[in-house]
Amino acid sequence: MDGDKRAVIRLLEDIAEHLELRGENPFKIRAYQTAARTLERLETAPAELIAQGRLEEVPGIGRAIGDKIKEFVATGRLRYYDELKAATPGALLELIKIPGLGPKKAMTLYTKLGINSIGELEYACRENRLVGLAGFGIKTQERILAGIERVKKYQGQFLLAAVLPVAKALAAALAAVPGVTAAEVAGSVRRGRETVKDVDIVVAHPDPSAVGPAVLQLPGIEQVTGSGATKTSLVLETGLAVDVRAVLPEQFAPAWHHFTGSKEHNVLLRGRAKEQGLKINEYGVEAGTGPLGPIADEAAFFRLFGLPFIPPELREGGDEIEAAAAGRLPRLLEESDIQGVFHVHTTYSDGAASLAAMAAAARERGLKYIGISDHSRTAVYARGLRLEAVLEQQREIARLNEAPEGCWILSGIESDILPDGSLDYPDDVLAGFDFVIASVHSAFRMSEAEMTKRIIRAMENPFVTMLGHPTGRLLLGRDGYEVDLAAVIEAAAATGTVLEINANPYRLDLDWRWCRRAKEKGVRLAVNPDAHSAEELAYIAWGVMTARKGWLEALDIINTLPLPQVRNLLRQKRAAGAI
DNA sequence: GCCGTTTTCGGCCCGACTGTTTTCAGTCG
Fold first, then answer.
1. Which A residues between 75 and 134 have a beta carbon under 7 A from any strand B atom?
2. CA distance A188 to A259
């Protein structure tokens, strides 16, 4: 059911990409992208919309795209797409991934030089064969070669957790430059995207042209890739690209908003501004009569369009502007809402710190409770707990809880979900824990149907309090296993199972794109650090970011509850199951 | 390709920088 929707979205996105390569009308390309995004947000599957005859009522889907979706849903294919694909070689899709190489130049390389892959392009550059092509010169060739290096070395993506501290340090360094009145991180880093491809920083200075030279003094620069009056582009030694934009102090708020994006958000906001007779650019807002006066901050900026402040995490170009206009923005979760944490490992299994040390670290962080969940016995690679160890740990927890000193220890387990969906311990052992996290750690290679059934069966177990890292993905490492998340969310709602937002920056799983769906279905979530050391309790910040991007509020997250309420909640599902 | 009580045609967000150009196309965000 959901696979059908995903396939349609994919199809529309692919068409847009192919049209881009063909140098088609940009607005036509955007029409396909808009249709894909709209469908993404829609609860109803395309097949259902078609059955109800309502497909073309969806904004952004007209006759042409509607017919294409119908053909694709009915036959599983689309002739138009097949023809496009036949006419635009797949190699071009690979080529436009190289920074500095867009559809036009890629097409020239393909038609004039017969370049079919990045490898061939690299070879052609080294043979000096690009020079002489219309629109190409020695600089372009060098640029492309450097772009290839970057793609090969880093795949162009970085983990947010690796980038954010660097970005903040750069902004702080620029903030200290004489004359600078503000320097802030913008872009996808500020929006809290889980992976990012570059850093954007906006700097305010009475003489913007004075900022560029200061930027060039920053430490760790490997290469300067652009240097104009107001924009400086760098690549750091780590391969991370950085863009710095300089504006006048009175332009800072609109500029910060502009460079925070997303691009899609900006397009939508400009559309709304236009309806109101206002024009936005990165330096300010103009009415028909001329530029409006200085804008104090982003809140004032949004007010010009009759909107409340939209938090950066929500600015992905979905329905955030619509929701803001209707007063339906959520009051997003904050880290200070977090009262305690679940999913913490100790030296009983593969953690680096002892139970007592983890509890002490939690206390120092001001947490009111900490839920210990070491690995279960099947996870031998992680020194999973045999039954004797389970009992021993529970005795130690009881002993430590005699003097809890403000932080209560909850006894739990991260139990493997076995291939058939059963858990790793019998019910009487499971009943001895305060909570149980069920996770898939093995036998990843199953069909989507089998994996979905396996996970749902685990959730039907009354002792399973939470589902751990629902897809098993590792960012920039491996894709998650095949699983029908829509069905998992339905099952979580039906069984009263909490879904984990695993806050390890490599996981961030459940993905923010699914969090909102879960919330709408009435599912509760837990922001879990999956900490294997005392320091990793700080991972909670990444999980909070994910929850915020998923429109979640404190109410949606169980570990914002005080201890007595959270203990009640942990008992609810098994109590219901026992009746 | 989509959309519309200003419109069924003519709009659709806007600007910086680079490189290859004799005035601007391509790329990016």
1. 96, 98-106, 134
2. 9
Burial group, residue A151, by CB count within 10 angstroms (0-12, 13-18, 19+): middle
pLDDT at A1: 47
Please check whether strand B approaches the CB of A266 to within 7 Å. Answer: yes
Residue A53 falls in which region: left (phi positive, over 0), alpha (psi -120 to 50) or beta: left
pLDDT score recorded for residue A579: 46
C1'-nearest nucleotide to the CA of A147: B27
Name the H helices within A435-526: 448-460, 485-495, 512-520
Q: Which residues of chain A have pLDDT under 70?
A: 1-3, 577-579
Which nucleotide has the least CA–C1' distance to A228?
B17
Round the CA-based radius of gyration of chain A to a whole number and report it.
Answer: 26
Q: CB of A197 under 7 A from strand B?
A: yes
Q: Distance between alpha carbon A402 and the CA centroid of its chain, in Å? A: 41
CA at A218, C1' at B17: how many angstroms apart? 21
- Model confidence pLDDT, tens digit, residues A463-474: 999 999 999 998
Is the shortest CB-to-strand distance from A28 to strand B under 7 Å?
yes
Q: What gap in Å lies between CA A16 and CA A34, rounded to an integer?
A: 10
pLDDT of residue A3: 61
Q: Does residue A305 lie within 7 Å of nucleic acid chain B, judged by its CB?
A: no
Q: Could you tell me the distance in Å between the CA of residue A421 and the C1' of nucleotide B11?
A: 56
Residues 50-69 of A with CB under 7 A from strand B: 59-66
Helix intervals (H) in A52-102: 63-75, 79-87, 90-95
What whole-number percentage of chain A has pLDDT above 70?
Answer: 99
Q: Tens of pLDDT along A379-396? A: 877 788 999 999 999 999
Cα A295 to Cα A314: distance, rounded to the nearest angstrom: 21
- Residue A201 DSSP SS3: strand
**Cβ–Cβ < 8 Å for A546, A503:** yes
Which residue ranges form the domains of chain A, and what is each CATH number? Answer: 5-154 (1.10.150.110), 157-247 (3.30.460.10), 252-329 (3.30.210.10), 335-578 (3.20.20.140)
What are the residues whose beta carbons fall under 8 Å from the beta carbon of A48, sequence distance 6 or more?
none
**CA A315-A556-A457 angle, 5° bins:** 110
A148: Cβ contacts below 8 Å, ≥ 6 apart = A98, A118, A121, A122, A125
User: Residue A286, CA: closest nucleotide via C1'?
Assistant: B14
For A185-216, letters b (16+ CB in 10 Å) and e give bbbbbbbbbbbbbbbbbbbbbeebeebbebbe
Distance in angstroms: CA A255, C1' B25: 26
CB proximity A282–strand B (7 Å threshold): yes
Q: How far apart are the first and last CA of chain A?
A: 33
By C-alpha distance, which of A50, A36, A42 is closest to A7?
Answer: A36
Q: Which amino acid is at A132?
A: G
Which of A266, A261, A259, A265 shows the shortest CA–CA distance to A244? A259
Instruction: List bases, strand B, within 7 Å of protein CB.
Output: 1-3, 11-21, 25-29
Question: CA A227 → C1' B18, Å?
Answer: 10
For residue A183, the model assigns a pLDDT of 97
Nucleotide nearest to A106 (CA to C1'): B26
